[in-house]
Records
---
Amino acid sequence: MAIDLASNVLRPSPQPVPWHSIDTVLLDMDGTLLDLRFDNWFWQEHVPALWGASRGLSPTEAVRQLLPTFAAAQGTLAWYCIDHWSEVLGMDLYAVKDAVREAVCWLPGAEACLIALRAAGKRTVLVTNAHPGALAVKERQLGFLHRLDAAYSTHAFGAPKEDPRFWPALQAVETFDAARTLFVDDSLPMLAAAQAFGLAAVRAIRCPDSGRAPKDTAHWPAVDGVADLLVGLTAG
């Protein structure tokens, strides 16, 4: 265990992935492969500013009024549902997000990591809480899905990744061997749910947002970014 002097965050010592016993890699999207800076800006600044402007509110007042509404949905599938928020806020959030999609970008080393994993014979699977509509916007911008063997939005299963009901539902479709699967995410509750389901290995992402300091990942084995997972990986 070490202290990150730049951020004063407790930093778990890196734990190399036991690649010899891993066949499948389940990967989160926002904050793991794609820079969470876009989503943090979009939901915490851009959407409140637009919503507030239409009501004569300052950005600060708009955020203050929206916080309880957002907080009430946290931890549920509605929290991630662009349809839900379009209805609640009275905004076409598909159009709003698509209009600024050029700000969507990879996290450093993420695309190269996917290429290396597939070259090594690992099955790479995207597992995201993002609504299919939001996923489609990001795919239009980056065209990244061809780098993966499969991609799933939790909306198709009726439960988010932090809900224990999600994992057996995913396994029924993807048929991965939990004992030979690695799950990577920037959300600690999602790592906890995956571990409780019995996945062999999990890794937290410490730097999901390129504009913010590394996050405290508590006791979870962590890497700054997915490129750091490749230590010890050899091409198949």
Note: The chain has two domains: 2-36+106-230, 38-102.
---
Amino acid sequence: MTLTQSFEKLGGGDKALEFSLKGVDEKMYSLFDFQGKEGLLVLFICNHCPYVKAKIDVMVKLYEKWGAKIAFVGINSNDPEYEGEGMDNMKVFARERNMQFPYLLDDTQEMAKAYGATCTPDPFLFDKDFNLVFHGRIDDALEPGQEAEENTMDENIMNMVEGKEISKELKPSMGCSIKWISS
């Protein structure tokens, strides 16, 4: 496990990038399946990472709180051959954690590269027009077992939905590095 910090490839106002990925429900999803709400939260996550496991309950609670207003999608860009990864393991992970939002496999890793995702979790918050408004941490508890004092993503979603300004201060996410497919 290599602790990795997210970095900004997409900047504020950049558009969400189109994709066509298969979900754990066997359906194909594109970016436009998530339009019609007040925003979109794209979560680059995986199955084995202790940082994702420490945050998944928070992500599920965010969905329960905000899922009626904004769309959520989890994308797994890890090498599907990496231990604990791949579609079969994703199905188990999603079911065991009661994930009610789509969880998609980026088996070519094109989406992670295009978005500049580097770690898991690596969240990207877009407005209703799919413009990036925040890329960064879910909260300030960056190590498993820590208690959050700042609920960064919840506050940013609330500000976006209420039409308030979102801080441009970089608050990077940290987690395991994405497991890239070796050539």
Note: Residues 3-177 form a domain with the Glutaredoxin fold (CATH 3.40.30.10).
---
Amino acid sequence: MAARRGIVTGGTWCVDNNRVISFWPEEDGIAEILSQELAGGGSGCNLAVDIRHLDPALPVETIAIVGDDEGGRFLRSIAEEAGIDHRQMHVDGLLPTQFTDAYASATTHRRTHLFAKGVAASLTPDHFDLAATHGRILHLGLPGFHKQLDGPWAGGDNGWVTILKKARGLGLKTNIELASLAPRILADAVMPCLGHLDYVVVNDAEIGALAGLPTVCHGVTDAGLCEAAARAVLDSGAMELVVVHWPQHAIAVARDGTVARKASVAIPPELVVGANGAGDAFAAGMVYGLHEGWPLDRSLALAHATAACSLRSVTTSGAMVGWQETLRLADQWGWRT
């Protein structure tokens, strides 16, 4: 078999109804919808599309499940337009395509998501024919959103572990994407996966959930606890690298003892529209650098720069550009200290 090259994304593809609202109201309150736009979302979609924007020459494949409905056809059209190999985007006519109402506050630029799992609950390890893929890195997500994968499969490990074992057995490197669900849900689904992962790229709250540490308190991130949590997670698994990111900073801790720290991009506030997809964008930049064999500090820089570029759109991937332009824009905007 020829040497593997490219990225394989597996898991969540959903339809995002992106809305910019005047502010996020409390219960019984009211806020104005200022704009709305339909787009693809979910870890499998976002990272696949982002990578294709960063480098259109790099092959990207995806494995997912959608409904036999308008939403499913919309997501398949996104994959086709982006040049993503979607032969393993399975269609199930029994349930609707997963969707998310994604709200971005024009006041704070914070995001709030309301979702319906739909057909995502039917995704199983049997949908993953990894022997038929050609990519080098499998980017898998999202635990907590796929009922069949979250539970035991064939009387053994959970579905995520089953897929990861297959992937590593075939020579793929593995990474997992998370969403900021309740800590107990994340820990139950993800901790069994740590022995079968090569990379973990997560945010400050997610690393705290895995390590059982209060990395974020009253909205403030503790960088020291993030690093301690990264080390604890690294010690609990087989990973080469654990990366933790938040809006101001990122820390990468490697198995060989290397530690890299990088402040984020000082994007002008007037360019910021919303944070939906910024975490996926960070992961895309990081995974691209890892695939290309870049030094750790350069990969972190691209990850931050990709996340900053994504903030310019209410959709997850609407503001993505090539990696050279991404780094040029970051240098133009400047870096936080």
Note: The chain has ten helices and 15 strands.
